[in-house]
């Protein structure tokens, strides 16, 4: 037993957790406290100097958040992780550790809409410059790289579902140019895809979605793959240069293969502040215990629903890589043989009006702007998230007037199919 390497299901329940040393509590306690008493003045000094690990203040260290960090690092196969307030905060802290004003990064053009906004608009204030590449064409990433490119950013399964990105092909380009590859693994979760196995260097999550899985808490995670060598690399001064914040310490040298996670914690989270609440960390941890069961069941149900919709004469097309006829089916079999996730889009005949009507007719599906819940969710992007765009822009973004997005939950698939049938007929 001692040599047995724990499997994914076991890690989802046990990684990072032990009975509480003080009380014996078996579920991870919620340490709902802002700060922690030092043993003595020397202990305090060593914590502040990064000579010892420990809790100072919940913004940069909390025992409940630490269990979540260790668990996600184990599930992804990374060296360390950092829990933060949201998925967007995770992306922000990653870029803050990598980019200086005037630097560029290359991002796939198929991303969560909020990420497209963050990259196009918010990052302008820091003069971090995004160059867009075609998510389906690895060569376009190479073409977009310049001497100022400091990172490449993609999603594994890209929003709004239905797109599988060739991580290994893009990683090959990143490695040839010695640029870290960041993968947003929110839609797949480590149960379906583990990006480090395909050459990613950093993984980020909106834990708000499938990791938490119950639509009740916002959280984000950064996972360090430990694969990128920052030492002596002048392009990344946060990791390779003496830091005035820590008496001239060079984080990349002091912390080796988990220096990136440390940089995000002690330079990003400490100074910019988007802390994860211990209560939310507890909720996400509880969700992760059933992640393998939920992802498998939700992927299986999604395939059943997608197959059914593809055969309905009110539906003009279905985009789900689990379908044999889908353009991304071969990539799905290679990257996520267990299932292609729980989010996909389809087109209703009759365009905008038919889309709006379908959403109002549905009874079991909830009409809202989230994914990855136990409850099945629906949104009509053209009348909601993408309504400010012209029709042409909507179509380019995969949010044309006829597009409906579903996130399939844990209800009986027969009930979901019956609800869709009655809504399409109505
Ligand atoms: C929701 C989402 C985000 C943003 O996460 P928040 O937790 O809402 O900040 C980033 N990427 C993807 C793929 C998402 O679905």
From TrEMBL:
Database matches in InterPro entries: Cys/Met-Metab_PyrdxlP-dep_enz, Cys_met_metab_PP, OAc-hSer/O-AcSer_sulfhydrylase, PyrdxlP-dep_Trfase, PyrdxlP-dep_Trfase_major, PyrdxlP-dep_Trfase_small
GO term, biological process aspect, one: cysteine biosynthetic process from serine
Keywords, in A-Z order: Pyridoxal phosphate, Transferase
Modified residues (N6-(pyridoxal phosphate)lysine): 209
One Pfam family matching this protein: Cys_Met_Meta_PP
Top-rank taxon: Bacteria
CC annotations in GO: cytoplasm
Cofactor: pyridoxal 5'-phosphate
GO terms assigned for molecular function: cysteine synthase activity; O-acetylhomoserine aminocarboxypropyltransferase activity; pyridoxal phosphate binding
PANTHER family reported for this sequence: HOMOCYSTEINE/CYSTEINE SYNTHASE (PTHR43797), HOMOCYSTEINE_CYSTEINE SYNTHASE (PTHR43797:SF2)
Family from the record: Belongs to the trans-sulfuration enzymes family.
Name of the protein this chain belongs to: O-acetylhomoserine sulfhydrylase
């Amino acid at each position: 037993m001692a040599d047995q390497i724990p499997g994914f299901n076991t890690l989802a329940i046990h990684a990072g957790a032990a009975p509480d040393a003080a009380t014996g509590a078996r579920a991870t306690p919620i340490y709902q406290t802002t700060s922690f008493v030092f043993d003595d003045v020397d202990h305090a000094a060593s914590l502040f100097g990064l000579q010892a690990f420990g809790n100072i203040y919940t913004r940069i260290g909390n025992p409940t958040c630490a269990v979540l960090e260790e668990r996600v690092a184990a599930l992804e196969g990374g060296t360390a992780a950092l829990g933060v307030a949201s998925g967007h905060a995770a992306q922000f802290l990653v870029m803050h550790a990598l980019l200086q004003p005037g630097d560029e990064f290359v991002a796939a053009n198929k991303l969560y809409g909020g990420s497209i906004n963050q990259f196009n608009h918010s990052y302008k204030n820091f003069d971090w410059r995004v160059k867009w590449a075609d998510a389906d064409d690895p060569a376009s990433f190479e073409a977009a790289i310049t001497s100022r490119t400091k990172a490449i950013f993609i999603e594994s399964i890209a929003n709004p579902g239905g797109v599988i990105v060739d991580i290994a092909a893009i990683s090959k380009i990143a490695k040839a140019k010695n640029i870290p590859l960041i993968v947003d693994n929110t839609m797949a979760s480590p149960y379906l895809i583990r990006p480090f196995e395909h050459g990613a260097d950093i993984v980020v999550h909106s834990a708000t979605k499938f990791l938490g899985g119950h639509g009740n808490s916002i959280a984000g995670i950064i996972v360090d793959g430990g694969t990128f060598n920052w030492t002596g690399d002048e392009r990344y001064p946060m990791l390779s240069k003496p830091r005035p914040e820590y008496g001239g310490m060079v984080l990349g040298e002091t912390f080796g293969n988990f220096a990136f996670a440390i940089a995000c914690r002690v330079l990003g989270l400490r100074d910019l502040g988007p802390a994860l609440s211990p209560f939310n960390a507890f909720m996400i941890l509880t969700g992760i215990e059933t992640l393998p069961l939920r992802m498998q069941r939700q992927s299986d149900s999604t395939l059943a629903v997608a197959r059914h919709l593809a055969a309905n004469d009110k539906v003009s097309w279905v985009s789900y890589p689990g379908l044999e006829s889908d353009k991304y089916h071969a990539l799905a079999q290679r990257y996520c043989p267990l299932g292609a996730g729980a989010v996909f889009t389809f087109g209703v005949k009759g365009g905008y009006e038919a889309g709006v009507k379908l959403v109002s007719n549905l009874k079991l599906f909830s009409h809202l702007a989230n994914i990855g819940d136990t409850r099945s969710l629906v949104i009509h992007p053209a009348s909601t998230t993408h309504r400010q765009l012209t029709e042409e822009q909507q179509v380019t973004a995969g949010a044309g007037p006829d597009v409906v997005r579903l996130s399939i939950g844990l209800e009986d698939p027969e009930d979901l199919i019956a609800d869709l049938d009655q809504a399409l007929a109505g």
